[in-house]
Every structure is written in structure tokens, then in C-alpha cells.
Amino acid sequence: MEPSLPNRARLSLHIPEPPGRPGDLPDFTTLRLSAAGEVDRPPMDASEPSMRELPYRLIRVLDDGGAAVGPWNPHLPVETLVHGLRAMMLTRAFDDRLFRAHRQGKTSFYMKSTGEEAIGAAQSLVLGAGDMCFPTYRVLSWLMARDYPLVELCNQIFSNARDPLKGRQLPILYSARDYGFYSLSGNVGSRFGHAVGWAMASAYRGDDKIALAYIGEGTTAEGDFHEALTFASVYRAPAVLCVTNNQWAISSFSGIAGGQETTFAAKALAYGIPGLRVDGNDFLAIWAATAWAAERARSNLGSTLIELFTYRASGHSTSDDPTKYRPSDEPAHWPLGDPVERLKQHLVALGAWSDDRHEALALELDAAVRAAVREAEQVGTLGKSKPDLREMFEGVFKEPDWRLVEQRRELGL
Amino acid sequence: MNMVQALNSALDVKLAHDPDMLIFGEDVGYFGGVFRVTDGLQKKHGLKRCFDAPIAEGGIIAAAIGMGAYGLRPVPEIQFADYILPAYDQLVSEAARLRYRSGGEFWAPITVRSPYGGGIFGGQTHSQSPEAIFAHITGLKTVIPSTPYDAKGLLIASIEDDDPVIFLEPKRLYNGPFDGRHDQAVKSWAGHPAAEVPEGHYTVPLGKAAVVRSGEAVTVLAYGTMVHVALAGIEDSGIDAELIDLRSIVPLDIDTIVASVKKTGRCVIVHEASRYGGFGGELSALVQERCFFELEAPIGRVAGYDTPYPHAFEWDYFPGPGRVAAALRQVMDGQ
Description:
The complex is a heterodimer. By secondary structure, chain A is of the alpha/beta class. Chain A contains eleven helices and seven strands. In chain A, α2 (117-126) runs parallel beside α7 and α4 packs across α10. Chain A is globular. The N and C termini of chain A lie far apart (73 Å). Chain B is built from twelve helices and twelve strands. Chain B is globular and about 60 Å long.
């Protein structure tokens, strides 16, 4: 028998869905975008309660014509802009070449940063040599902006005899301490709290270093995110905490992480720290927001949460085909454009850049990547070369215990 | 000193001599910890050296790892080992592997202190012994003292170690030794030789077992609270058993274990954690692999039952001297 129900409509479970699936027209009409230059820039030491509207607006500097406008314009010298552009273009050239290397069976895995290159490039240049970035796998441009050797990247990706991580780590989960780049693991979000602890340690010691961390918008659902923000807030950790909202967590759109209900920047409000929402395809806006948050951190005013609003133009990884879950031409319709094209346009508008110079730089960078790949291939690609097998047993502990010694001996090493 | 005082003394010594060492965790600061292990340390060494943390075990360990990567030696406390599971991902995926995966660029010299084990009527969430789930994870060290002297020396050694250490404190032994006879009042550590604890700095090395009692007939392997239960069981049985306190299960003092079993020809393993998949299984396999031709009887195991930790049945669940004595008689008689 049916249980008796009160005279109300039945409940129904809400499952969020993105505006477009394969075969549909891309639809970004629901996005809340501010115009370039529209959002106020509060003083760096403004009180948190006075900034609670910021997370609902979008900080943008570059307008549709490539001009830098508004209070967040960082007024960067041309050399800095070209440095950033070069890092972004190098990242793209490297991604294209190494993605192809995967298709040729030279590595087991690769992940591209396509569409998000401005983030790592700008933030790498804003932060200092002693600071530490706690990266995700989509900020290769951080390393590119700091001239990390391309051959070393290839050696790591090929897990060959010269792999700086000694054959122990999945391709592209780099570690580069000297470049301010913390070790990655595959468990998303688990390093967000390390950044806060690292920043707390700097403050504890009375040093002047700050931490910068990334988490994907999908990963904000993890407890790691909320625990790290609690610690950041409670101890006023000198950290810049970034949510890279590229709209997609593998095949799950940002609504599955709560992105339809509020902005990711607004998550800062519950923790009593400033939240900025920034055009993640705008090199200048990222620079300005990061510099603002970094200055707050250096002034002992604590953490800032920055949502970098961008779009993952390629698949999640070499194992992913995004045309299976979103309109195939969706990337081309992203309303905030392509970060490389936008910075190029800005430089052209300044009279400091041209199509010819751009083309020449692209060719130069592609040649540099090809040369690096070739050099690493000489050492060997996956399965054709590997570090000394003894490395398998090293670094488990500072000194191997008897188990490792015995097991290494079993292999005759 | 009792064990709480010995642990407090270890932390006090390290705070005094190593400015990179700091303590944080739930209620460890002003209040001094729910078991009083950090009592007075904040007042003596300052707010920044010993402070309270949010109720976020994963966040506590994540912050500790970041601090360790920076160059500090954090000593976070997890209030009960039962609460360590929200931090398990941080311990397993991050602390244990940071040195390995980064090619030696980063590491996490953290010491995670946590009271563990039963015998205080704490029910399921205040009584468990999770050591096996850490012993299985390579890259972590797991240390479990059984006396005040060892507790202080092992804790200082753990803090000074460059690898991540899980330091499990048998809370049943905090205020006195325990012989498994639950109808007796808690004994005091006063007068016990292991309660003579020096005030200053000393270490007990990790990976070195202690022979608590020499014997010829059978080797008993135990750690933590069970060392005391095993000793009572040996006395009850009247069997000339050799009792080895492992002190750390990673690193494990395999040489002492093997030498003893080769001498006695018999082995009984005692632990408080439930039996199936427990660390006793690993010990049993190691002894069998290395001492098979010297063994005169199947290896005996005394452990908690394979149920969640039961509140009303605590003294039926918790291994006592009677079960140890029965296991000893069984390996001696083959019955």
C-alpha cells in the first residue's frame, strides 16, 4: 500500500547539466562577465569586509581591442610582456610536440595546458626565486617562464636514463625545487594544504617567502581545499591560493563542483579572506591580481583566494576525448578568447610586436623543442632506456632498511 | 616519570634545543592535550611553539608536510589514532612518498604522535590499533613504545629522524604498566625500573628491539601494551619464554627476532589489533621464511578478534595473560 503523503508536490533530485553536449551549439550566455577595466582595485591593505563584492565580478585588463584598461592595469614593461608571451608560446609548442610523442608511443602519458598558459607564465614571473609554487599538472608555463631546461622535461616524460626524478614518477608530474616548483602527485588537491603549511613555516621562521598553490575547480569539492582554507584563514598564512576554473574536470562540468550556485572565488567569503575572480586568459589581469595578493601576503595580511576563470581547450589528458561530452567547437566559442592571441594582440597594439615577429618566434621555439626532444630521444624513450635499477630502491627512506637492501640484492644489484 | 611525563619531557627537551621543532594539534596548546602530554609546553616555550589546530586531521598532516618540506620538524598530534583516517591520504600519498617521487628534492621529517589502543573503555572510536595499515605503506616508520624510558628516547629519535614517523602511544600505559588483569586498579609506574627517566636528551634508536626477558623455550614477540600482558602471561604459564619488545615495527629488528626464534624453536606473536591482516601476519611470515627448519611448532598468534572494537565486551576482546598463557602452552604441547 502507498504510504500517505502530505498534499505537496513530490520532491525531485537536481542533477546539474552543462548548457551544451556533443551536437549542441556552444552556449556561454549564462556566464557572468564584467567588462575590461570595470572592477575596482581596492588598496592592498583594505579590510576583508570591504571587498565582499569582488568574488562576484571578473577582474579584466585587456579589452577586446587589446588595450590595457582600468585600475588593475599593471603597466608592465614591454620586455616583461614579451617574456610572458614567449613562455606561453613555448608551452604550447612543447605541448603539441610531446602530445604527438605520446601518439608515437614514446611516453605513457601527457597532459596539455592549452588555453591556460597565461596563468603559470604570469604567476611565475610575479613570484620571487625563494617563493614556492605548489602546482597542478597544467601549469607547465611556470617552468617555461623560468627557463627550466627543455631536455630535462623530455627526460622526465620519457622516464629515460637521465630522468631527473629517476624513473619513479608519472610523466609531467615534475618536481623542480630550484625553480620554486613543488613535487606533484596524482591525488588532486592533496598539496593545497602543504602550501599553507609551507607558508606557515616561513612566517614561523620570520622569513619573507610566500607560497602559491593551485587547485582545479573540480577539486574544490575535496576536503583538502576546505581544510587548507581553514588553516590559511586561522593562521593568516602568507599564501596565494588559486582555483584554476577551466570549466571541466575530465568530463564533469564546473556545475558538478557547485559552480552553478556561486563563484569559486566566493568560497573565500566563509573563511574571511579576500576572494578575487580573474580573467584567466588575460596575462595582465592575472599578473595584477597575483601581485596584489602576493603583496598582501608579504605584508603579513594573510592569504587571498584567486579564481582564475579560464577554459581547458584540449582534453584532460592523452587518455581523454572531449568531443564525447561537450560540443566539439566549444573551445573556439569561449568568450574570453585565447591567452596567447590576446597578449599578442596587446603587444601589437602597443606597436611592440608584429605578425612577422610572432611567426619567427613560433618557429624558433618549435625548433628549440624539436632539438630538446631529439636530444632526449638519443638518451631513450619509454622502455628503451631507464635510470639505474638501483634507483628503484633509493629514496624510500633516507637510508634503506634491510627489506630494501635484501630486495635490491635479490635483483643482483 | 610515568609515560605521559616522559613524553612531555621529550617534547620539552626538543623544544628547548631545536628552534625548528614545533607542536600543533587539537587541544594541545593552552589546555595541554586531552591526555596532558603537552601540558605546560605552550606556557614554557610560547604560543608559536605549541598551539591548537582546527578539527581537521587531513589539514593538520598536510600543514605538517608543508612545514617539513620547508625545513621545520613539526610534531603534530592526532588526538586519538582512531581519528587518523581522515589524514590517511596525506600520510600515504604524500608524506610517505614525497622523497621518493621528487627524486630527493623534498621530504617530510614529521613525527605524528597519536594515542592508540584499548583498555580505557573508549569504545570503537577511542580504542583501535591501526599500526598494520601504516606498516604496509612503504616510506613511513611506525614506532610504539612500552615503557616511559623508551617512550622518551624513541620520541626524541623519531623527531630527529628525517623520515615521516607515526608514533603510537599506548594510552593504557600512560599512567602505569598494565598486566592485562582488568579487575585490578591501574598500577603506578613508580618504582618500575623503566620509569627512571633522565631529565635531559637521550635517544633509543629506531629499529632496535629490546629483549625484555631471556628464555629458552619459546620466543614471544610483542609491542606496546601487549609487552606487559605478554610478560604476565609468561609468568602465569611458568614457561621459560623469551620476550622481545619490538619498539618499532618499521624499521623492524629482524636480526634480533630471527636469532631468538632460532634459539628457542618456537614463536608466539601478541598484538592488540584485530588478527586478520594484522601485523602479526607479517611477523609470522618473516619468521616462517627465515626459521622454518628450526621451528618445532606452528607459530602462535594472540590478537584482538575480527570485530569492530566492542564497548561492553572490551575485556573479552582485549588479549589478556590467560590467552597468552594458553598460546604458550599450545606451542609447547602441540595441543
